[in-house]
Amino acid sequence: MYAIIATGGKQYKVSEGDVIKVEKIEAEAGNTVTFDQVIAVSDDTLKVGNDVANATVSATVVEQGRYRKVIVYKYKRKSGYHKKNGHRQYFTQVKIDKINL
To answer: Of 30, 35, 89, 93, which residue is the least packed, with the fewest Cβ within 10 Å?
Structure first.
């Protein structure tokens, strides 16, 4: 059985026991979070729309962290203009516990 959830402006295909990294969620490590925006659930047949209106996915927060640094470099030739910048995006790693229909 798998489900497609939406969080942080992205969609993820998850099954029970999966460990995924999602956009930062305000929760401590060890806490339980619930994803209410379930788009589809499939066990043998695919269920969407009103069939999954009350479906939820519960998960446990494993850790809070940051991705590797992404370097942004801007440059314009012949003018002496260059600018170097870096960014590290925050993430929350969660373990999917249960898909509730």
So the answer is: 30
Q: Which domain holds residue 17?
A: 2-100
> Measuring CA to CA, which residue among 65, 69, 57, 68 is closest to residue 93?
65
Whether residue 101 contacts residue 55, with contact meaning beta carbons closer than 8 Å, is answered with: yes
DSSP annotation of 26? S
Minimal CA–CA distance to 58: which of 8, 90, 14? 14
- The whole-angstrom separation of Cα 47 and Cα 57 is 15
Q: Which two tokens stand for residue 54?
A: 């009350």
What is the tally of structural domains in the chain? 1
Q: Do 48 and 63 meet the contact criterion of CB atoms below 8 Å apart? A: no
> What is the pLDDT tens value at each position of the chain, 101 positions in all?
899 999 999 999 999 999 999 999 999 999 999 999 998 888 888 888 888 888 899 999 999 999 999 999 999 999 999 999 999 999 999 999 999 88
